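Hi team,

Below is the intake form for Endoglucanase from Cajanus cajan. Please confirm the fields before the structure is written into the shared record.

FORM ID: S-0412
PROTEIN: Endoglucanase
ORGANISM: Cajanus cajan
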Amino acid sequence: MNWRKDSALQDLYILPPSNVDLVGGYYDAGDNMKFNFPMAFSTTMLAWSVIEFGKFMGPELKHSLDAIRWGTDYLLKATSIPGFVFAQVGDPYADHNCWERPEDMDTPRTAFAVTKDYPASELSAEIAAALAASSIVYRKYHLSYSSRLLKRATMVFDFADKYRGSYNDSLGHWVCPFYCDFSGYQDELVWGAAWLLKATKLPYYLDYIAKNIHNVKNYGEFGWDSKDAGINVLLSKLLMNSSFNSKPFSLNADKFVCSVLPESPSVSVSYSPGGLLFKPGGSNLQHATAFSFLFLVYAGYLKKTNQQIDCSGNVLASPTRLKQIARSQVDYILGSNPENMSYMVGYGGKYPERIHHRASSLPSVDEHRGHIGCKEGSFYFQTQNPNPNLLSGAVVGGPDIKDSYADSRADFAHSEPTTYINAPLVGVLAYFKSHPS
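The structure came back. Fields below:
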């Protein structure tokens, strides 16, 4: 994507005697903000994708490893000062008031950190999960880097657990309503412990999960905010052959599947006429990609143990059925839908052309070398012309529940791509590429 150039090279936090370098990482969506909570989740999902489906990635595996490392290198910086965990870089109000290329940014790049007095257990534990999951990936390719990730994951998890609290309270004005934590931080603590258990095999983390799992509410959710369904799927496999009772996790994972299966009597999600899974809120395709990922992973576990799920009412869900559901969502996203539109930019004959993404919608630095100021970009936001720069591979928020899509920059709930829509799709696509039938 050679129309993108360097940006935010001055991102730092002034902390005498030396400044903390916060260059790198990912902007969460179509803005120029670095929100570390969803960024860490996206990194965890990229790592889990490689752990489960890396063997199907072929030459793309190298790019997946690069994408993970781009996240983890930044997260190491964000946790480099003991007792500090950085939550975000940028002033969201100033940023959202401008339509500017990241290369031109002149809004404040304020860095926000949490401490023992102003904690953020959900953020810190999710970063620990990302570092621990990535350490598993890198163990095979770069042992010293893997060890560094795991050591930091342990330290950040201990910080998250020892100084408990939500960043809604510590940084509420700056993180809400953008990435407010609605489900509490207990799920992230157990999620982080589960990844550390997988990475270390230490009984300490198993004991921790046993003592804390009762604090996690099972909403049947999975995404940057709620981890409960992911916890149950991950621990179902992890504890499959252990002496620890894995039954509660597999029962909850089964319940999650039954809440999504369209023919199940306990289905609690909606489906569009064209078959797309729907949950309330914006950026709906985040649910379709994250749930598809869990369905594929859990189908693999069920197949290994020769099991199927009883959703009652004579509805049995086999591993093959779970794969069918995941496949239907991926096919819908890629163009098998009533609009015959791919919701992945640059893929297929028809795809979103006016996505809510600053860099994509403004002329590139190659085309327009002069600075484009905060409000000068408004013309490009308002125009009906297609975006001049193709953000290849980005998946947008998707259509409405009636399968229609307006292709409007202003309609950000549907037209904005996000890292956490794309990240779970990486492993899913790798699987279906290798299992076309």
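SUMMARY LINE: The longest strand covers residues 85-89.

Thanks, M.
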